[in-house]
Design brief:
13 helices; 4 strands; globular
Length: 354
């Protein structure tokens, strides 16, 4: 029963979310609002980036500045695959459906390659802490960009153009949904508890027998994989993959989203990613002052609420959600210590169903 309940918790959001995304996409296409579609797509991609980085910077308490590098690995992997199979039909499927299947496989390959890159970077660098780790991950991102700029097979500095427009509201929304579910399931798992322990006091966690380096590497690999997913999605909406899209500034933008929402808060990362994406679009009317206003708002928020919008809390920690009869649905939460996400009590556990 416990296993089936866990599967249901992971699949139910997709069963509810995918039909809603399909309807939303159909409505926007019918209305001809491509501008709103693009805003929704970029907001969802930023959610993928912010929530995935929060696994490292928020859950584990590390400081990574290499997210753009993992995006680049995923972006170029997906771009090369879709360009190689463009116009081909797989297993006799119609061309449109075949293109969607190829895109799905390209995104999986993007996540896989980005995860390998995360492992290769994480194994030696995650023995470091604080500023030293930030410098190493920043260097990795710049190395990746420099390598791409000098490889003719990847289009060098001009990049790869002519990519098919495959990223839609549905694809981006499913990617964001998968990232949020991953983060939530991770936070309430044994792995998540170990990550929170490392964040609170790494020396104490290691003294209690936690394999701190191993857990940090796993978190880094997971975070890198979903950054690769975001890279694959973004280049197939821009129809161009260029090194200029994956600079140090891109990593800083994602760090800002995570810090603004609250380190360790999944809800905060979502709200900050969507809010900044929509806010910058609304400020497009005053193009010359847009970044100035953006900077002043960030400074004001950091002065007034330095812990971020949500701190380490989640929306389901609010009293309104605590009154909801979760036990009737077979779900119970057991609060953890301050600043640590709650765990879900399973069958036979204290607070769980009998």
């Amino acid at each position: 029963m416990g296993f089936l309940r866990g599967v249901l918790r992971s699949t139910l959001p997709f069963l509810i979310g995918i039909p809603i995304l399909l309807v939303l996409q159909a409505v926007l296409d019918e209305a001809g609002r491509q501008d709103l579609s693009l805003i929704a797509i970029f907001a969802a991609i930023n959610v993928v980036l912010a929530v995935s980085l929060n696994v490292v910077n928020g859950f584990t308490g590390q400081f990574s500045l290499g997210h753009a590098g993992f995006m680049a690995v995923g972006a170029y992997t997906a771009a090369k695959i879709t360009l190689a199979f463009r116009g081909s039909q797989m297993l006799g499927l119609p061309e449109d459906l075949s293109g969607q299947v190829v895109f799905f496989l390209a995104l999986l390959a993007a996540m896989f390659n980005a995860a390998i890159a995360g492992f290769l970077v994480g194994m030696p660098s995650l023995r470091l802490r604080g500023d030293y780790l930030a410098i190493v991950t920043l260097g990795f991102g710049e190395i990746i960009r420099s390598v791409i700029e000098n490889l003719k097979t990847l289009g060098a500095s001009t990049g790869l153009s002519g990519l098919p427009r495959l990223t839609s509201v549905t694809w981006a929304g499913v990617g964001a949904l998968a990232t949020v579910i991953m983060a939530r399931r991770l936070a309430v798992s044994t792995q998540g508890r170990a990550l929170f322990a490392i964040r609170e006091d790494e020396v104490a966690a290691e003294a209690m027998g936690v394999d701190t380096t191993g857990y940090k590497v796993r978190a880094f690999v997971i975070s890198a994989a979903f950054a690769g997913l975001a890279g694959g999605l973004v280049v197939h909406v821009l129809q161009l993959s260029t090194p200029r899209s994956f600079t140090f500034i891109r990593s800083i933008e994602v760090v800002v989203m995570v810090t603004l929402g609250g380190l360790g808060s999944i809800t905060g990362s979502i709200v900050a990613a969507v809010g900044l994406t929509v806010g910058l679009e609304l400020l497009r009317e005053v193009q010359q002052y847009r970044m100035v206003v953006y900077a002043f708002l960030l400074i004001a928020l950091m002065l007034l609420r330095p812990q971020g919008l949500f701190g380490t809390r989640e929306i389901w920690d609010l009293s309104l959600f605590r009154r909801f009869p979760w036990k009737k649905l077979g779900v119970a939460t057991t609060p953890g210590p301050a600043g640590v996400a709650p765990t879900e009590a399973g069958e036979g556990e204290p607070g769980g169903p009998p």
